[in-house]
């Protein structure tokens, strides 16, 4: 590497300094989020993270990076929910708190909770309920939250566990959920857009779409939990159109254009204030 490339004032140096600032503010971020923040390719981000990791300035994870701490030397952290939860945490937490604080969930209802970091935080709030509740999920981390509360009757899909996405294999999930019916299905997504509806990535070791679609079909109301950073994003795997949703809960940090997109869907939208 020549002196021009290694200079902190070079394009690469400025970009890497920005990565360090973002990780300091967010604790952890995915390659995708870093690409969006820095308007560059994933290959560029991977090269930057590789170099910063080699210099001992960050900790690389599967699909992203986190700031260097005393606790992130365990390679199993690559698969932890902590990584995803620590990205856009304030936005996701506002959505999670609303679900329980608003009184949306009532005693003795049956709810299904999707995998993903926003759904995990929502489950964390729901798990504090003081009334009887039936909960179904295919997320091990969410199940671990629920078993701590004696008021909650838990249905957990078993089978082969994939820690990369915190989910059990779709076959067992489909078999269990096919005979269950729910008041609410709280669903997550990687992206939503006007032209493609709700989408998710196909880079995971298992396909999420079949389980999502089954739970939608077996629920009276499907509620999409989606912070505003997912708006105007499209991924390869289509999940559903907006007409198949009953409610969208997002944060109020949306731009005017993003709010207009959501309101034009015809779906009830809750814009939760971010503290």
Describe this structure in words.
With 275 residues, this protein is an alpha/beta fold. It has 2 domains: 3-85, Orthogonal Bundle (Arc Repressor Mutant, subunit A), CATH 1.10.10.10; 89-272, Rossmann fold. It is 37% helix and 23% strand. It is built from 11 helices and 15 strands. The chain has helices spanning 3-6, 11-26, 31-38, 42-54, 81-85, 89-101, 117-126, 140-146, 170-177, 209-217, 256-263, and strands spanning 28-30, 58-61, 64-67, 110-113, 133-137, 152-156, 161-162, 167-168, 182-187, 191-193, 197-200, 219-225, 237-240, 247-251, 268-272. The longest helix has 16 residues, at 11-26. It starts with a helix and ends with a strand.
Short account of what is shown:
This protein is of the alpha/beta class and 275 residues long. It has 2 domains: 3-85, Winged helix-like DNA-binding domain superfamily/Winged helix DNA-binding domain (Arc Repressor Mutant, subunit A); 89-272, Rossmann fold. 37% of the residues lie in helices and 23% in strands.
């Amino acid at each position: 590497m020549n002196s021009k490339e290694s200079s902190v004032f070079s394009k690469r140096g400025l970009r890497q300094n920005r990565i360090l600032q973002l990780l300091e503010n967010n604790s952890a971020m995915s390659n995708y989020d870093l690409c969006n923040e820095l308007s560059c390719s994933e290959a560029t981000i991977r090269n930057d993270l590789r170099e910063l990791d080699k210099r001992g300035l960050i900790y690389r994870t599967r699909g992203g990076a986190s700031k260097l701490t005393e606790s992130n030397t365990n390679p199993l952290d690559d698969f932890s929910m902590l990584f995803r939860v620590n990205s856009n945490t304030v936005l996701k937490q506002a959505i999670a708190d609303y679900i329980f604080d608003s009184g949306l969930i009532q005693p003795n209802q049956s709810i299904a909770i999707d995998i993903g970091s926003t759904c995990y935080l929502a489950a964390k709030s729901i798990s504090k309920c003081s009334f009887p509740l039936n909960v179904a999920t295919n997320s091990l981390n969410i199940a671990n939250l629920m078993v701590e509360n004696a008021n909650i009757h838990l249905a957990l899909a078993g089978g082969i566990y994939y820690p990369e996405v915190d989910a059990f294999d779709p076959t067992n999930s489909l078999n269990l959920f096919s005979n269950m019916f729910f008041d609410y299905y709280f669903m997550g997504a990687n992206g939503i857009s006007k032209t493609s509806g709700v989408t998710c990535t196909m880079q995971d070791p298992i396909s999420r779409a079949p389980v999502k679609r089954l739970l939608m079909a077996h629920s009276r109301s499907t509620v999409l939990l989606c912070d505003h950073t997912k708006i105007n994003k499209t991924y390869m795997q289509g999940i559903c159109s907006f007409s198949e949703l009953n409610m969208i809960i997002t944060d109020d940090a949306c731009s005017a254009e993003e709010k207009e997109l959501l309101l034009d869907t015809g779906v009830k939208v809750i814009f939760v204030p971010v503290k």
